[in-house]
Amino acid sequence: MLDSQVNEDTQMDCTTEEILDSLQNLIARAAALSRYFWPARDGKNQEHKRRAEQLCQAFSVSDESPLKDRELRNCMEHFDERLDHYLSKLIIGHIIPSYVGHAPEQFEVPQHVFRAYFVDIGTFEILGTNYKIQPIVDEISRLHSILLRCNTDGCRLPRGSSHA
After folding, report:
1. What's the pLDDT tens digit per position in 91-122?
2. Environment class of 162 (CB within 10 Å of its CB; exposed 0-12, middle 13-18, buried 19+)
3. Whose CA is closest to 113, among 90, 135, 134, 91?
């Protein structure tokens, strides 16, 4: 679980880039899980759809799952294109390439954050778009718990229908 409270006495041993890279890795792994539950819509292969339906039922994953939202993953995978579009507009103010810390206060001078994690509110920001990370972590953790139980139950898929 991510801790949204910052202990000022605790010294971080990780750099800002390492933290942001780790968050991006978490998001990429969440996107990989997402493909099992919601495969690409090619319309040709029904076995992918059947597999996804069976997994959604077995793991009690609904369309409200934070894993279904692929917008964040797409933001990162197409960062170069988004950056081109973002920079094509007139930008005035402070440019912040990477940041980890408390959410900044709003000032008269606009701030443009390329990539940040705000520890006090648990939000990842990429080019002005914000995403809550904790729901993703909670869902991955829930699935992990189900898989651990599955492993002790002879590696059988659960029957689904209730959240862990």
Report:
1. 888 888 999 999 988 778 888 888 999 999 99
2. exposed
3. 91
Amino acid at site 151: N
* SS3 call for 94: strand
Expressed in angstroms, the distance from the first to the final Cα of the chain is 16
DSSP class of residue 100 equals E
In whole angstroms, how far apart are CA 23 and each of 19, 39, 134, 150? 6, 23, 11, 27
DSSP letter (8 states) at residue 137:
H
The overall pTM is greater than 0.85: no
Classified as helix, coil or strand, 28 is helix
Q: What does the pLDDT look like over 114-129, one tens digit per residue?
A: 899 999 999 999 888 8
Rounded to the nearest 5°, which phi and psi values hold at 113?
-100, 120
Residue 87 is encoded by which pair of tokens?
């920079």
**Residues in the chain with pLDDT < 70?**
1-12, 42-44, 158-164
**CA geometry: angle at 98 spanning 92 and 103, to 5°?**
80
